[in-house]
Amino acid sequence: MKKIICLALMTVCFTICSFAAEPLSERFPAEYEQLVNAVYETTHSYEELQPLFDRAISVSQEKYEGQEQMTLLAMCSFMRGMVYFFLNDEKTSGYYFDIAQNTINAARKIEKTAVNTALLAQIIMQNAAVKGFTYQLANVPGVPRLIREALALDKDCVQALYMHNFFNCTVPVPYGEGYLKGAEAMTELVESERTMTKNQRYNMLAIIGYAYNKKNHRDLAVQFYERALEIYPTNAEALAALAAIKASM
């Protein structure tokens, strides 16, 4: 009888564990990754993307709680902002980036992690791209502190390492460490054996292209944008950047 009860308990435990969500520090849910990939393809209408948003939000509410749930909801709002960013609708994208920023700040009030801290830095930098000088002045100077905080929480966090290099690839000296230094460090990261998502790899390659273009290394810029487009061949932003660089050569 005891053996039967023990086996039954083991079965229940296995069933519970099999349905438990992996921590966001290890892997975002497949439903969210599907949403991200569809957004970055920039070929889907908002109506076509809505079911993917619904599934990602549903998973966040059903399988996660606390800061992880809030972090995932924040990133769903961030993706809504990215849809409009790719459509060059800065006002609407900024509206959703604000929601994402407020939501991830709420997550960090519950618990600060390397992932949600690095993602906050990413949201701020993306929001700064569509907001005016007042927002940039109030928020961007605090990004390096957030990156240091994320790396202190987990020195191997890929998102934190990405944001450290991203800042240098996009912010000039003396605020950043230099476009070329950022590009070289980001190249080391993308070519390392670290586990990273399809989206992270794309963003790393595209931002390396951006940094090299800023320093007039156009051949290298073309090379990295083309590598980024191997991941998302229809991404409108990368296609436009690559066309502009080639037109100037």
How would you summarize this macromolecular structure in one to three sentences?
With 249 residues, this protein is mostly helical. It has helices at 2-19, 30-41, 46-63, 66-86, 90-110, 114-128, 133-139, 143-153, 158-170, 179-190, 198-214, 218-231, 236-248.
Would you mind describing this structure in some detail?
77% of the residues lie in helices and 0% in strands. With 249 residues, the chain is mainly alpha-helical. α12 packs antiparallel against α13 (236-248).
Any key phrases for this structure?
single chain; 13 helices; mainly alpha; 249 residues
What is the topological layout?
Layout lengths: L1 H18 L10 H12 L4 H18 L2 H21 L3 H21 L3 H15 L4 H7 L3 H11 L4 H13 L8 H12 L7 H17 L3 H14 L4 H13 L1
Helix pairs in contact: 2-3, 2-4, 3-4, 4-5, 5-6, 6-7, 6-8, 6-9, 8-9, 9-10, 9-11, 10-11, 11-12, 12-13
As residue ranges, the low-confidence spans are 1-19
- Counting helices, strands and paired strands, the structural category is mainly alpha
Mean pLDDT: 92
Number of helical stretches of at least 4 residues: 13
Distance between the termini: 80 Å
Counting DSSP E segments of at least 2 residues, the number of strands comes to: 0
Oligomer: single chain
Portion in strands: under 5%
Rg result: 20 Å
Largest sheet: none
Shape: globular
The residue fraction in helices comes out at over 70%
